[in-house]
Amino acid sequence: MPDTPPPRVDLRTDRAHSARVYDYFLGGKTNFPADREAGEQILREWPGSRASARAARAVMHRMVRRLAETHGIRQFLDIGTGIPTEPNLHEVAQRTDPACRVVYVDNDPIVLAHARALLTSSPEGRTAYIDGDLREPGRLLDAPVLHKTLDLDRPVALTLINIVHFMSDEKVLPIVGELVSALPSGSFLALTAGTADSAPERAEIASRRYAEAGIENHLRTRAQVERFFTGLELDDPGVVLINRWHPELGKGPALADHEVMAYAGLARKP
User: Fewest CB within 10 angstroms: 30, 70, 148, 160, which?
Assistant: First the structure.
């Protein structure tokens, strides 16, 4: 962990932010009146938003466990990390192998302010944080901390959880391609993306409320989400709704399709 505290940042609490609205849905405390107002507008029209947000968080945990346990991945590059919520990605990965290494990336000033929570690691492993933006892949790939923490000659899991739906295809598809191209053979792409396929009316309400709060968002069909994995080898069960991606038994009743609004997919770079 760094010896100096994170720098002072402008949290811009007067306007809603996607990470803080998501934190509100998850029952977190790192949100402000503008975030809660946007969240409450969505909840009034779709009370199941909280359950859907928790399902999106849970699928990240399952993806990381599968990457570590089934595919033997020990290095993770997580872009669009969001506000720390236990268990964080490195905690999930290091339960499988304490030597796992994780680099977190986010451009939200409130995530930077809480970065110390992401920089706790097992003694055998390592975590690092980059104050960076998905829209600047070249800068991320050149960051010294990335190369000090991860060995880019060995497989890396690139995790893009709940982030690509805040960018258009024209912008984000080439960026994801550039990032995957920079990783060695045997690396993985783990991605979730918002959709209206499962609950068109509810998803459109949520999308509209985000837009009214000044948050750009793009809902995609399954075929559109599959485009992110072009040239990669999709892992079982392919691109499916998050409630159907390796659901865990014994964790209570599974959500129905209409209760979630995101797809998940995991694929290997040949």
Answer: 148
